[in-house]
Amino acid sequence: MFSDNFILYSGKIIVELIYDVAYFPLWWYWRGFFNLLISLKNFLVDKQRSLALLVWLKNIFRPMYGQFDWQGMLVSFFMRLAQIIFRSLALLFWLIAAAGVALAWLILPLFAVYEIILQLI
What we know:
single chain; mainly alpha; 88% helix; 0% strand; elongated
């Protein structure tokens, strides 16, 4: 009785293990990558919200502190322009970092297989 159950469940575990190993590349490059892209998109949307870049762009021609004289409008415009430039550079940094993560996701399994083969030779 013990050996029958052992053989039955051992076979199921081995079949499940073979299935998981065979399914892993498909999951990694299809569903896993799709989930990663969704996460990176949400990450970039959160970064854009924290930087409030669209708010700065929308209000670029409005004077700060209600100063409607030409000096106040000029200072407000250039101050907001500088903020937009620096916040755009920060968002560009996060965009490049997210693209690097996505690229690393695609290359990492290939690199691991290459290193395993290199160690076996």
